[in-house]
Amino acid sequence: MATVDLTSIAKSFGPTKVLGGVDLSIADGEFLTLVGPSGCGKSTLIRIIAGLEAQDSGGVAIGGASVDHLRAHERRVAMVFQSYALYPHMTVGANIGLPLTMSRMTLRQRLPLLRLLSRQRREILRGIEADVGAVAAQLQLEHLLDRRPAQLSGGQRQRVALGRAMVRSPDVFLMDEPLSNLDAKLRVHMRTELAELHKRLGATFIYVTHDQIEAMTMSDRVAMMDAGDVLQLGTPSELYERPASIKVAQFIGSPAINLLPATLAGSGRIELFGRPLSLAVNGTAGASITLGIRAEALSLAQGEPGQGGRAWFSARLRRKENLGSEYILHFDLAGRDAPGVTTRATAATAATVNETAEVALTFDETACHVFDVGGERLEPRNGGAVSSVVPLRA
Ligand SMILES: Nc1ncnc2c1ncn2[C@@H]1O[C@H](COP(=O)(O)OP(=O)(O)O)[C@@H](O)[C@H]1O
Ligand SMILES: [Mg+2]
């Protein structure tokens, strides 16, 4: 088992800067996910950890020791690729056992002509077979060991690729979008399997995905990347509940967070559509800010809007999206210079609204996120979390 420490990892391909100096420390046994939009440098970073790509500058240490001088197969890491990279002409058993064949047998012993001759070779083969069997049992692949990859389902191929990584008992598992070739249902199932496998093996997992749900559901911590930099590193709840920037807030969470343009009035109080809220931040009067409100923090006002001093604004239904367990309601903000917003609703609540009339949407100010004009998170003036702002409204 091992820690992984990345220090100022930078990488360019020709004139294109892909990684801008990434610092990241991953704890022993941790499940860390690199998440971010396509092209942000996730694969490049994980390939550098694996030793499949060389960084331009910076260092990789595994278990506290630099591995920069080690080639990929010397690093005690195993990588699982999105494409599985299985050999089509080999059986499942041979595919899983391949890393052991390569490390335990000499080139001579691997030559077909000498196959029948060596007793030593037979002993090595028996050892490999036992190790492959143990891994296959863990992954429920025992009955498939003699098949070839083409005779397997996508999920089974995925397991074979996992088995090939497990068979060397690596300290660190590196996984690059391993579930993206599976259909939606299997992907959900495999999320659970991978999380359980991680628990069982106790190894360090570094997992790459562009799917924020995978990142949120499996990881101990998530590193959100964009354009070659880590924007925020934290637990899934930290990223969801205290996003450091608009980019993180927008990427994490489904439906996407509602973003509304607002301004700072005198005294730092936030005004939304000309109405003062009870939130205040440091900043100059007149400054533009953005208010982030998650769909679950926004709801249809019951009774008179503004009751009990609750913040509200008016909107008109555009579309109802039935998810079975709940509805996502999409609203337009008629006449306002703002994009639409979404809320979650029960079927009963969804039935009370239609496209014909404007409704009032009310929200929990303590659950709002505030971002400055550059998209960085703003903390409230009293220094606590936004959620602990003292209401200014009489
Ligand atoms: N071998 C390469 N040669 C040139 N450009 C590359 C190479 N590998 C990746 N890139 C570029 O680097 C950027 C980051 O790629 P990648 O790390 O694969 O992103 P991600 O995995 O987050 O989608 C992309 O713009 C990609 O086109
Ligand atoms: Mg990639």
UniProtKB/TrEMBL annotation:
Where is it predominantly found?
membrane
Q: How does it sit in the membrane?
A: Peripheral membrane protein
Q: Which GO terms describe its molecular function?
A: ABC-type transporter activity; ATP binding; ATP hydrolysis activity
Gene Ontology CC, one term: ATP-binding cassette (ABC) transporter complex, substrate-binding subunit-containing
InterPro entries per UniProt: AAA+_ATPase, ABC_transporter-like_ATP-bd, ABC_transporter-like_CS, ABC_transpr_MalK/UgpC-like, Mo/tungstate-bd_C_term_dom, NA-bd_OB-fold, P-loop_NTPase, Transp-assoc_OB_typ2
Q: Which UniProt keywords apply?
A: ATP-binding, Cell membrane, Membrane, Nucleotide-binding, Translocase, Transport
What name does UniProt use for this protein? Carbohydrate ABC transporter ATP-binding protein, CUT1 family
**Domain of life, per the record?**
Bacteria
- Which residue range or ranges hold the ABC transporter domain? 4-252
Tell me if Lipid metabolism is a UniProt keyword of this record. no
Q: Which family does it belong to?
A: Belongs to the ABC transporter superfamily.
Q: Which Gene3D superfamilies match?
A: 2.40.50.100, Nucleic acid-binding proteins, P-loop containing nucleotide triphosphate hydrolases
The places in or outside the cell where this protein is found are: Cell inner membrane
